[in-house]
Structure formats: structure tokens, C-alpha cells
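Example for tutorial group B:
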């Protein structure tokens, strides 16, 4: 059943809490199956530059609880060129690496598709991104932790917002996806949530604030995804203050704190399952697929399907926000 000898593992794109747990699972499952496992540092850029070291079981001791990635990560422009891919391929030959596990998001899998088409190195992906914007899995590694981090921060903002009867705008991460905004906003009872998947109508946002004013509801929290089409929280703040000049408004950008910190138990378990599944998948001859969890079970989805579509947002959640915030 074992089709592989030496496995290379890398993390690529934005880091996410739980990537280390995935690396640990890949290394230990590989060793258990009789393979040697090599850590490729700084993603595809490190592959090009030969920044590659063998990982033993003890090298991944005590990393399951750590955020970030011991392998470091990068977004490599060089890997998008033929020369870059050729240099990376030579490095894999040098280390006798004949299979890859790629932990990252859609950009990382796009790189794997181009590389496989030219050099036929089998690769299995693991979804590692706080954005949860990939099809083929119900959750991505790091999403749960990021939502909890955002939720804790917004809870704190709510305390001070209530003390001063203020309207707060909170920007959370998600360049193209609104899942962190949606989930942290619902978890905090936000009055409004603005996400890229749904067109933001400022007149409706302002009308909802007016409704709260009429009901004498002083605190109003609006969670805004980074990639929302409303031109950023300062633009929203300006529109709100023009319509409600007496309203005390503050804004807060949560930023990269959402990417760090110890992974939640859900992310550690997810990362362990997917790391184990990815290596077993390679051993069974799977390639050019991403391991994911759908309805509690491990499934493998071709990279080509993962990169061509986006996970749609559930409409019932969007409808629910408007009801639960009255
Ligand atoms: O893809 C994950 C993510 O955190 C996005 O939500 C965010 O837009 C982006 O990465 C930020 O990237 P960087 O760390 O390069 O600023």
C-alpha cells in the first residue's frame, strides 16, 4: 500500500493556528509508515532555495499547542515562474523527496497544480487558513481559533461600548471571505455584520441604526469583514456620523491578533486528523487532492475543484442576524 519513500511537508500562505499540529501529525504518520519526512521551510520559496531539513519524531514534540508554524511560511512569487519551479524540483531530487504535503489555502494548492502538471510529484493538501473559504471541507485549520479570538475581543469592546452608549465598528480579517465576521458577529450578538459575499447597502445599515435609535437601544456593534465592499470601517463610520451627528462612534481593527495564539481543541483535533489522513492518502496513491472533513468524515477533493469555486455563505445565517439583533 505504501507508494512513497520520502515526504516533504510545507506550510504556505498566511499562517493559521493549528498548522503545527498538522505538521506533527504528518511527521509522525509518515515515520509510522516507514517514510522519511522533510520539513521544507518558508513554503515554496524555501523549496526553491533548498531550505529543507529532515524532521524526526522528537522535532515535533510539544508543538501541538503552539500557534504559528515551526516551518515558517511565505507567499512565493518566484514559484510562479518556470525557473522557480525548476529550481524547486531540483531541490526535491537532491533530497529524494517523492511526495508532498502542502498545508495552506487556495493559492498554495494552485501552486501544487502547476508543479504537478510539469513534474508529476504527487501532493496532498491540508486546508490551513483562518478564512474558511475553501470548498471540500466544513472547517479549515485555524478558523475556530481565529473566531474565538475575535469573539473575545468583541466581547470586551461591547463592555466599553455599553459603558459609554457608543456605536462600535470592528474590522475582522477576511480579504475575500466573511466567515470570521459572520461567526464572531453572531457569537457576540452584533447588530450588523458586513461581509464581501453580500453587497453592503449603506442605506439599509443606516436604517437599522435608526431602528435601534427609535427603540432607545444605545449600543450598536457592527462587525465588518476586511474585504467587505463598504470601503473600510472608516468609510462606514463617516457615513454613520453624517446621518447621526450626535452618535458617539468608535472603530477598532483587530488585525493579526486573529492569526496567532494557541490553537483551540477543535483546531488541534482537525489538524491531527487531516495530517494523518493526508499521509495515508499519499500512501494509498492519492494525489492532487485536498484532505477535508465533511459531515464529520474525511474526504478528498481534487485541487482543481478546490481552487475553482468558493464556499457560499449560508443564507439562513444572514437572515438570522437581522432577526436576532432586534
Ligand atoms: O488568508 C488569511 C489572511 O489572514 C486574510 O484574512 C488576510 O486578508 C490576509 O491573510 C492578511 O495577509 P498578510 O498577513 O500578508 O497581511
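The residue assignment follows.
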Amino acid at each position: 500500500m505504501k507508494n512513497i519513500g520520502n515526504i516533504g511537508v510545507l506550510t504556505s500562505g498566511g499562517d493559521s493556528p493549528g498548522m503545527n499540529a498538522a505538521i506533527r501529525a504528518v511527521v509522525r504518520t509518515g515515520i509510522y509508515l516507514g517514510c522519511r519526512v522533510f520539513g521544507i521551510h518558508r513554503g515554496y520559496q524555501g523549496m526553491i532555495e533548498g531550505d529543507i531539513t529532515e524532521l524526526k519524531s522528537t522535532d515535533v514534540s510539544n508543538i501541538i499547542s503552539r500557534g504559528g508554524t515551526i516551518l515558517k511560511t511565505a507567499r512565493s512569487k518566484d514559484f510562479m515562474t518556470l525557473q522557480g519551479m525548476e529550481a524547486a524540483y531540483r531541490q526535491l531530487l537532491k533530497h529524494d523527496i517523492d511526495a508532498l504535503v502542502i498545508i495552506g489555502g487556495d493559492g498554495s494548492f494552485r501552486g501544487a497544480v502547476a508543479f504537478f502538471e510539469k513534474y508529476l510529484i504527487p501532493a496532498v493538501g491540508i486546508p490551513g487558513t483562518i478564512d474558511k473559504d475553501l470548498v471540500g471541507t466544513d472547517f479549515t485549520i485555524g478558523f475556530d481559533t481565529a473566531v474565538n479570538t475575535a469573539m473575545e475581543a468583541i466581547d470586551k469592546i461591547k463592555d466599553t461600548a455599553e459603558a459609554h452608549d457608543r456605536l462600535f465598528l470592528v474590522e475582522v480579517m477576511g480579504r475575500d471571505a466573511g466567515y470570521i465576521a459572520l461567526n464572531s458577529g453572531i457569537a457576540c450578538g452584533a447588530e450588523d455584520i458586513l461581509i464581501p459575499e453580500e453587497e453592503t447597502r449603506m442605506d439599509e445599515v443606516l436604517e437599522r441604526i435608526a431602528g435601534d435609535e427609535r427603540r432607545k437601544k444605545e449600543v450598536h456593534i457592527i462587525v465588518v469583514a476586511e474585504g467587505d465592499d463598504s470601503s473600510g470601517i472608516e468609510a462606514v463610520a463617516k457615513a454613520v456620523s453624517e446621518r447621526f451627528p450626535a452618535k458617539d462612534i468608535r472603530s477598532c481593527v483587530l488585525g493579526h491578533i486573529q492569526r496567532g495564539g494557541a490553537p483551540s481543541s477543535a483546531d488541534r483535533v482537525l489538524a491531527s486528523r487531516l495530517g494523518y489522513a493526508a499521509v495515508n492518502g499519499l500512501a494509498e496513491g492519492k494525489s492532487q487532492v485536498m484532505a477535508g472533513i465533511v459531515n464529520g468524515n474525511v474526504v478528498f477533493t481534487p485541487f482543481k475543484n478546490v481552487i475553482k469555486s468558493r464556499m457560499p455563505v449560508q443564507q439562513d445565517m444572514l437572515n438570522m442576524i437581522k432577526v436576532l439583533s432586534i
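The CA atoms of residues 2 and 283 lie 4 Å apart. Compare this with the pattern of hydrophobic and polar residues in the output above.
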